[in-house]
C-alpha cells in the first residue's frame, strides 16, 4: 500500500465518524442551525471545546469571504479551517540527536522506537537504541527484537538495573561511534507514581550532563484513549519538557479528532502517527494528508 492509501485506510474510522455526519447535517444552507450541528459533531468526535470553537470561527470567516454555498465548497473551507489549527512552530531537525520516548503503560513506546529506527535508517541515518526500560521483565528483549528487525545496534542492561546508568552508557557509545540518532526507551509509568516520575527526571539529567548533540523528548499517546491523552501531556510536560507527540493506534479508533485538541491546547507538534503494528506503520505527521484523509 502506498503512503496516502495507508493513512487513508488507517483513518477510515475517524473519517466515517466525523464526516459522515457533516454530509448528513448539511441541508443546503450555511445557517446558524448548520453551524450548531457542526459544532456538536466536532465536539462529539473528540475535538476539544477550544479547538472546536476555533475551527468554527475559522470556517465561518472563510465561508463568508468565499461566498460558499455547496457542501463540496464547504468541505474545502473546513479543510482550510482545520489546517490553521495544526500550524505549530517547529524547530529544524539536527543530528546527532537523542530522542527520549516517554508515556504511560502500553501506549506503544517500544513499538514506536522500532518503527522510528527503520524510518531514520531509510533516511540514511545511523541509529542506536537504548533499553532504558529496566523495570518490566522482557522489555529489553522486546526492544532487541525490534533492533534485529530494523537492523540497528542496541545498548541494554539486565532487568532491574539503574536506567540512568544504561542511558549514560548508551550515550557514550553513541558518541564514540558517531551515531546520528539515539532512541531511548523508557518504562511505562502511571502519572501518579511519583518514584517512576522521579526516575524520568534522573534520566533527563543524565542526558543533560552527558550529551552535547540535539535532543528531543517525545510523548507517545494512544489515540484510542481520546481526551484522556490530554492529561498525560500535561503531567509529563511538568516532569520532562515535551518537544513532540507520537500518536499511536489511530487505525483502531474513531477518535483521530484528538489531534486538534492536543495541538490547540498544548501547542506541542504531533510528529508521527501510528497506524498499525508493523514496522512500516509509522508516518511522519503531515497536517494536509491527515486532514485530506478525514474529510
Ligand atoms: N493497532 C496498533 N497497535 C499498536 C500501534 N502501536 C503499538 N501498538 C500495539 O500496542 C501494544 C503495546 O505496544 P508497546 O510498544 O509494547 O507499548 P509500550 O508503551 O512500550 O508498553 P510498556 O513498555 O509496557 O509501557 C502492542 O501490542 C503493539 O503492537 C499502532 O499504531 N496501531
Ligand atoms: Mg515498552
Task: Give a summary of the structure in a few sentences.
With 295 residues, the chain is of the alpha/beta class. The protein has helices at 3-10, 12-25, 32-43, 49-65, 71-85, 109-122, 139-150, 163-176, 194-210, 228-239, 258-266, 287-294, and strands at 97-102, 127-132, 153-155, 181-186, 214-222, 244-248, 270-274, 282-284.
Mean pLDDT, to the nearest integer, reads 91
Strand fraction: 5-15%
**Which CATH architecture of the largest domain would you pick?**
3-Layer(aba) Sandwich
Low-confidence parts, pLDDT < 50 over ≥5 residues? none
Q: Write the H/E string, N to C.
A: HHHHHEHEHEHEHEHEHEEH
Work out the radius of gyration.
21 Å
What is the total number of structural domains?
Answer: 2
In the sheet with the most strands, the strands line up as: 3-2-4-1-5-6-7-8
**Helices and strands: which structural class?**
alpha/beta
What is the overall shape? Answer: elongated
Oligomer: single chain
Helix and strand topology:
Layout: H1 3-10, H2 12-25, H3 32-43, H4 49-65, H5 71-85, E1 97-102, H6 109-122, E2 127-132, H7 139-150, E3 153-155, H8 163-176, E4 181-186, H9 194-210, E5 214-222, H10 228-239, E6 244-248, H11 258-266, E7 270-274, E8 282-284, H12 287-294
Parallel strand pairs: 1-4, 1-5, 2-3, 2-4, 5-6, 6-7
Antiparallel strand pairs: 7-8
Helix pairs in contact: 1-12, 2-3, 3-4, 4-5, 4-11, 6-7, 8-9, 10-11
The chain binds guanosine-5'-triphosphate and magnesium ion.
Guanosine-5'-triphosphate is lined by residues 103, 105-111, 133, 136, 139, 188, 248-249, 251-252, 274-277, 281.
